[in-house]
């Protein structure tokens, strides 16, 4: 089976991953620039994907029509978002928030692209049982990264805010001159409680969906592990070149890990996963071992409710089709 086509998609999304992480760090140091290096890297990934998509439109070899059309919708939506985002930046000047409405156009568009490619890969390899050793882990990781990207505001912001308050900010003079309300501007004006609740909802939802589709508990764990690993690699590189770094959300791994340990999609796995995620994160925050986004203990309640909500709702939804039992592992 020739998987070169999908390996090229992995490279395309990896370039977008690198460009996006670099761009998040870049915006905590410099003002917006249309042709910054992070934007160029992101564009290279976008262009490689566009080329691969174009090849499928010319002559379909590796994708079904529905998957190809999904990716096309994602690309069109992303292109619509570009002039809107430029206009937003021009109107508001400094843009220290990943939660802006125009950025969410990018996120939704990229989610659709990744899902389309992932579905195409799943259909293309439908005679092989999905395992964590396949590219399913990579596509799951890319989707997780896209869902988690808004949190970069808080994760980068936590360290940048700490440096600013200690008079050790590495932001440019242009950025510092525009800071009048450090906490609000650096954290994007987003309430503190959004970070943990959003994280648990997105990770739990993606984990449960993957388990139901693939009947595999390892893929979500390995995808989360790969995501955390790449975040640490990026953090090390940014620190080495004196770029703003971010807190790496290591406790996210506890959510899919609990589903793996229980081998069931039930409220107890959701409860323990979300409880472990928050309590360990809160312990790290209180100890000062790492600089984390701001947290308050009362947030534990909605976080746990969010963690339990996902598997409970999942149980009410009609089960997805099982993969064929006669598939052989890759």
TrEMBL record:
UniProtKB keywords: Membrane, Transmembrane, Transmembrane helix
Domain of life: Bacteria
Transmembrane segments: 37-54, 66-84, 104-122, 134-152, 193-214, 221-240, 246-262, 267-284, 296-317
Protein's recorded name: Uncharacterized protein
Organism name: Neobacillus vireti LMG 21834
